[in-house]
């Protein structure tokens, strides 16, 4: 009996010592993993420079901001802007197309580094992403077919079928308008224009730059109502944690504005200098 008890005590002591060692090793492993995770956190600007490219998310059907030309080449104000920003950072700019309605979610899932896609800065969007300072002032207008004498002001849209791009601030503006017969939403603004041209909708609500572009490109077909629905600053979108990248791109934007590059891009795509004071 004595021998058994002594053996039991000895075995129990050995077991306790063994468990203590296991606990110490486990805690050390956790600490090492934690340190490793902290060390693995990469500076967002350094990551872009290390890859040699800045990836930009945009919707390629929103002229003159971003669209495909007759040779299917991606062109537009935001494309020239993205190229200029990449040059300032010392990297190439690569564009990744995405439906505008899912742009913020795609940024959050790291499909691309930033959004440069005529995105209006809104309080709702700022809950999910960060923005640069506004690089151009936008705003919503209504476009109708030339010769439509029944619609001369925004109030005349009551009882009418109005189109917009799904998920855009044009969508928000059209939804807030009282008395419309229906708001018809499209994945691409070009499809909304097509339906306006054949009379399926009475008006299209969109950014002023886009509306003026269509009117200039197709003289005699469309008309912009004089009354503007809203004014909206447009900015570059960033993931909230990408502080270093945001700071570097903001610096690049400031330089592009002061050195006249943004004025040249504006003249090219809008026909006027949006930065002239």
TrEMBL record:
SMART domains: PBPb. It is found in: Cell envelope. Signal peptide: none annotated. GO terms for cellular component: cell envelope. SUPFAM superfamilies: Periplasmic binding protein-like II. InterPro entries: SBP_3_CS, Solute-binding_3/MltF_N. Keywords: Signal. Gene3D superfamilies: Periplasmic binding protein-like II (3.40.190.10). Residues 53-273 form the Solute-binding protein family 3/N-terminal domain. Pfam families: SBP_bac_3 (PF00497). Belongs to the bacterial solute-binding protein 3 family. This is Amino acid ABC transporter substrate-binding protein. It comes from Clostridium estertheticum.
């Amino acid at each position: 009996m004595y021998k058994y008890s002594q053996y039991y005590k000895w075995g129990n002591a050995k077991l306790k010592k063994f468990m203590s060692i296991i606990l110490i090793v486990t805690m050390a492993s956790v600490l090492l993993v934690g340190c490793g995770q902290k060390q693995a956190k990469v500076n967002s600007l350094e990551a872009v420079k290390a890859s040699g490219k800045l990836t930009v998310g945009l919707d390629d059907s929103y002229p003159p901001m971003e669209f495909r030309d007759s040779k299917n080449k991606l062109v537009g104000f935001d494309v020239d802007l993205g190229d200029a920003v990449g040059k300032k950072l010392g990297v190439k700019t690569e564009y990744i197309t995405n439906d505008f309605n899912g742009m913020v979610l795609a940024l959050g899932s790291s499909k691309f580094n930033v959004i440069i896609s005529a995105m209006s800065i809104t309080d709702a969007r700022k809950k999910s992403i960060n923005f640069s300072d506004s690089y151009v002032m936008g705003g919503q207008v209504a476009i109708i077919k030339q010769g439509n004498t029944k619609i001369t002001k925004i109030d005349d849209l009551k009882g009418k079928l109005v189109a917009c791009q799904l998920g855009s601030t044009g969508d928000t503006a059209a939804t807030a308008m009282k008395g419309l017969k229906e708001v018809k939403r499209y994945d691409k603004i070009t499809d909304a224009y097509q339906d306006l041209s054949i009379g399926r909708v009475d008006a299209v609500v969109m950014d002023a730059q886009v509306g003026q572009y269509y009117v200039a490109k197709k003289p005699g077909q469309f008309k912009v109502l004089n009354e503007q629905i809203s004014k909206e600053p447009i900015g570059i979108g960033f993931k909230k944690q990408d502080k270093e990248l945001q700071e570097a791109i903001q610096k690049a934007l400031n330089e592009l504005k002061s050195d006249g590059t943004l004025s040249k891009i504006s003249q090219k795509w809008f026909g006027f200098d949006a930065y002239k004071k």
